[in-house]
Amino acid sequence: MANPAPDWRKTVHLIQQLSLPKGREQLGLFTLEGYRSMERALRNGAPLEEVLVGQDCVDSPNQRQGRIVREVEALGVPLRVAPIEELRRMTGGRGLGNVFAVMRQPPPPSWEDVFSGEGRKLVVVGWNLGDPGNTGAVIRSALAAGASAFLAVGSTDPWHPKSVRTSMGSLFAIPIRRTSKEDWIDEFHGMDVETFATVCRDAEPLPSVRPHGDRLALVMGGEAFGLPDGTANRLKRRVTIPMPSGVDSYSINAATAVLAYTLMQIDC
Questions:
Q1: pLDDT single digits (tens) 214-265
Q2: End residue of a domain, out of 104, 131, 146
Q3: In a domain, 247, yes or no
Q4: What is the DSSP track for the chain?
Q5: Which domain does 58 fall in, by range?
């Protein structure tokens, strides 16, 4: 095994910088944590910049740790080894595994590529989701439902450490774009994308919805306030999930899973 690259303290400092939105924006980087996320990043050829592991991962690794270290070394990615106490401090007892990686944010996909090819294409849009845990969960559900891309609008931050953790590696397998503008709506409509606003009332019940084509966008608002009327009214259709009397709503993750899966499976 090659000697680990030195200067683990510099990597720890960089990870701390990337815990802040300003650091991620300025450097174009983000971080991941844990064995499962690391394995999915490696499986999907995600752009690793450097990797930080605990001393136990090289001194007496278990099978999983050893495989990760070997794959990182084979890629020629700098491997930093820190004292196990430092990794425990950084993970805060989350128990995901003593490994961190610094990664470059991938280039955004073009909509032409996303909507090309045969079959139904669905983009899940997270509109000002705010809570990064919700963002990661929605990305995970979007991928599982067969969505072709995820669009993060406004305060939705797919590269926040909590979002990355909650996605459990799913964000490495689905194209992601970010925007702070509203021109994506006009862009979608110009490409004949059928846009669905997810709302709680005055909408088509999901069981009766039939898409008119194979280019779809499902727009999810923040869990606390949902989509504002101004945004929902600009979209082509409004959809809701019927619920029993006295029930306010699904969680945003559950709603995304139900809506996205149904839109991908339902016959036109």
A1: 999 999 998 878 899 999 999 999 999 998 887 777 899 999 999 999 999 9
A2: 104
A3: yes
A4: -PPPBS-HHHHHHHHHHTTSHHHHHHHTEEEEESHHHHHHHHHTT--EEEEEEETHHHHS--HHHHHHHHHHHHHT--EEEE-HHHHHHHHTT--S-SEEEEEEPPPPPPHHHHT-SSS-EEEEEEES---HHHHHHHHHHHHHHT-SEEEEETT--TTSHHHHHHHTTGGGSS-EEEESSSHHHHHHHHTT-EEEEE-SSSSEEGGG---SSSEEEEEEEBTTTB--HHHHTTSSEEEE----TT-----HHHHHHHHHHHHHHS--
A5: 8-104
